[in-house]
Amino acid sequence: MTHLQQPDALGSSRSVRVLLVDDHAVVRQGLRLFLGLDPLIDVVGEAANGEEALSEAARLRPDVVIMDLMMPVMDGITATRLLRRQLPDTEVIALTSTLEEHKVNGAIDAGAMGYMLKDASSDTLAEAIHAAARGEVRLHPEAARRLVRDFRSPEMRENLTPKEVIVLQLIAHGHSNRDIAQDQGVAEATVKTHVSRLLGKLGLESRTQAALYALRHGLATLDEG
Asked: By the 8 A CB rule, do 97 and 117 touch?
């Protein structure tokens, strides 16, 4: 599938712990069944609304949360925003049946690492889960196009250094911090510092927003990778 990514062929030998959040039990059951086909994905829990998601995430500490957006009690966008504040090491993939633009933008603004449609194949979703666990951006192609078109970033507070521009481009191409460190021949901690600084300079909150910034300003394209 075509997104802002460059798949990591090396993968990971550690199972990714996943929490499923959807108000429809049949959807959760289907996701659990499909994801169960991947031996490196461990579905550790389920939740029926955003409030339950926060409670279960705090208890289970999953690597990735699959988050429906339209739910009772607390919607997925609100839950994503709160979860990312409370558990910054847990990544969120928004999973929904529509590409309504306010939902797409809302999910990414809230801190979702990826945005997928419910009609995605089990292989596509599993790959997105592994990517999120590695810190790589994954977006449905049409969602990416809409986000790039509508994305508005704050004014740049300070010019990026050449190294930060390279890191920004690699983020847009879907690379994790580990990938970037290997590519640039530096320590992963150094890459984390570059990422933190460039987000601060751009006035952005997440890697996904950074990827969109790079696309919006011509530093990367949707056809690369």
From this structure: yes
**Tokens 């390279």 — which residue?**
166
Torsion, CA 84, CA 28, CA 97, CA 103, rounded to 10: -20
**b/e map of 20-42 (b: 16 or more CB within 10 Å)?**
bbbbeeebbeebeebbeebeebe
Q: Which residues pair with 18 in a beta bridge?
A: 43, 64
Tell me the HSE value of 129 on the side-chain side, using a 13 A CA sphere.
Answer: 32
Rounded to an integer, what distance in angstroms lies between the CA atom of residue 53 and that of residue 48?
A: 7
pLDDT tens across the length of the chain (225 residues): 334 443 343 444 689 999 999 999 999 999 999 999 999 999 999 999 999 999 999 999 999 999 999 899 999 999 999 999 999 899 999 988 876 666 777 888 888 888 888 888 888 889 889 988 988 777 766 666 666 665 556 666 677 888 888 888 888 888 888 889 998 889 999 999 999 899 888 888 788 888 888 877 777 766 554
Query: How many angstroms separate the CA atoms of 103 and 79, rounded?
Result: 13
Integer Cα distance of 168 and 210 in angstroms: 7
Are the C-beta atoms of residues 18 and 64 closer than 8 Å to each other?
yes
Give the model confidence (pLDDT) of 31-65 as tens digits: 999 999 999 999 999 999 999 999 999 999 999 99
Report CA Rg, the chain: 17
